[in-house]
Amino acid sequence: MIFYFIFAPTQALFASRRGLLLWFEQLLPTLLPFSIISYIVLASGLFSFRGNGKKRRISSWEWYVILCGFLFGFPIGSKLTADLYRDGKISKKNASILCCFTNNLSPVFVTSAMAAMLNLNIHPVLYLVLYGIPFSLGIAALVFAGEQTPVQKNAAPRFHLNMQIIDAGIINGFETLIKICGYIMMFSILSELIKTLPVHNPLVSLLLVGCTEVTNGISCLAAYSCSDAVKYLLAVLFLSWNGISGLFQTASVLGMTDLSVRQYLKNKLVLSGIQSGVTGILFFGNFFI
Asked: Does 287 score more than 80 pLDDT?
């Protein structure tokens, strides 16, 4: 990357600026408020009155992670999972499951990528593949994991809210988003660098970029000449995998715990493979196009 800045400064600065704009215009306005609010919810014990100390397969805290992870996009799912696991509210086995299947791109981003960037009609099956499959597999894994919610042995928790919690939530939210900004900027530059490599096969170049950073991959896919079925398949591959950039962002939020990034990577690869395989069967089998 250093040599790229030296020998191709215009392209490198363009990529850096594009990464910063992506973070500032799309991620900061959507993820920062929610990151602050989620910290306040967790720190204030808002769900304490629901009796999370009782044994149950899926606790209120875990349902909260599932809801937020699917609505707001990665790495919120993994961040909430790490916070709850660190506070002893969920078990390690359930945390390993949650941090994978709740770590998806937000529906807003998916809709924007498919309609605005790829100019494709958004079939409802696309959402079932991107969200229905991880939701079903994740819930099944939680139910059959045989792991109960940890029982809190301290004094009964209660809801409390003060300015210190709100201030800490704001600082925590900015810290998380600034780290995400750094990763997005670095991988935006790396994606632009990959485009300059002497790869003669355009499909290989597209796969390298898309598996490195999803936004650049979708942008390159829009200019790639292929059928709509192939575009759907590659789009699902990029969107379900989240790119190596997404892996690094997830590793960053899991870094304060002993949750295994290697296990997350294995689960994510399997899940992405299942989603891509189902998409290929449906679209190339002409089930609905």
From this structure: no
